[in-house]
Design goal:
Length: about 220
């Protein structure tokens, strides 16, 4: 538990005693999207955090049973951090926060920092496999610092880091138009006007695109 406490006999207050400090839920986001991570990996995924603050947060999260750490053997030969089962149980909370915050995304400000893997939550939360009986599809998204892959797996849509050989569709451009298209807020013509480049099958896009009210135009 952190130094500050609400000192209230309330489940919400008790939860916020543990996860309410600044950066804590973003550390959870990093570990949830990246899996076991080195300290330097977390620093890279959390631009703006001070290194001593990250160390303090990780210690607090270990004490609270959200994070565990262990010394990985060679060739890694460093400490790795990962979420415990209790930490993984925060996934629905992060997904709902992502849904709640999505309308605030709009056009990113110049000062906003972006990492490609931050797209995992909005993609997984909003994309749906509309024809799960058909063969799986893979969409490669090229934006930010690394490529991402959207794929249909057992009737669900999953997003992961990396590239894929022979994707059905490739989306390339800034994150705003990509989010707009895949959420259904932009049709493909509008997304292209905003700089999005689309290669390959539009059918694959129609299969997974979100339903925010515009997906039918893709």
């Amino acid at each position: 538990m952190g130094v500050r406490s609400y000192q209230q006999y309330c489940a919400v207050a008790k939860a916020l005693d543990v996860i309410g400090d600044r950066w804590t839920l973003l550390i959870v986001r990093e570990l949830m999207t990246s899996g076991p991570s080195r300290y330097t990996d977390l620093l890279k995924g959390l631009p703006g955090i001070a290194t001593n603050l990250l160390a303090d947060r990780l210690r607090e999260m270990e004490k609270s049973g959200i994070v565990r750490s262990w010394a990985a053997p060679p060739p890694v030969a460093t400490t790795l951090f990962d979420l415990t089962a209790r930490g993984q149980a925060l996934r629905p909370l992060l997904e709902e926060l992502g849904r709640w915050g999505a309308p605030m995304m709009g056009v990113p400000q110049i000062s906003n920092v972006f990492r490609s893997h931050w797209l995992v939550f909005p993609f997984d939360a909003y994309l749906v496999d509309k024809t799960p009986d058909e063969p799986p599809v893979k969409i490669e998204v090229r934006t930010g610092d690394e490529p991402m892959v959207i794929e249909t797996v057992d009737g669900k849509v999953r997003t992961r880091r990396g590239a894929v050989e022979s994707p059905d569709t490739v989306l390339e451009g800034k994150p705003g138009p990509i989010l707009g298209l895949l959420s259904g807020r932009l049709d493909i013509a509008e997304a292209r006007q905003r700089g999005l480049v689309v290669h390959g099958s539009q059918k694959a896009l129609r299969r997974v695109v979100g339903n925010w009210g515009g997906a039918q135009q893709v």
